[in-house]
Amino acid sequence: MKALLVLALSSVCATAMAAESATDVAGQQTPVEEYTYSTHLDIAKVVSMSEVPNVCEVVPVRMEYEDSKGQRHILQYSVMGNGCSNG
What we know:
Radius of gyration: 22 Å
Order of helices and strands: HEEEE
Helix content: 25-40%
Strand order of the largest sheet: 1-4-3-2
CATH topology of the largest domain: Spermidine Synthase, Chain: A, domain 2
Mean pLDDT: 82
Number of domains: 2
Number of helices: 1
Distance between the termini: 76 Å
CATH class of the largest domain: Mainly Beta
Structural class: alpha+beta
Number of strands: 4
Strand content: 25-35%
């Protein structure tokens, strides 16, 4: 009975430790900033940009950049897709 109790407690501890490490990794990721017209942009270097989908509608895209202090940012903004035709 004691062995069963130890086994149950150890599995609960392992699960809690796994959840905690996943939270730590999520906390280290760069937060996504939503662009508005009043957003002050300090872009020193563009690291990457997501591709604009081939659809005829407004879609969100992301740009990862470094500011003048060397800090990384991810900016999400809306653009018109590339799938519209003029006919």
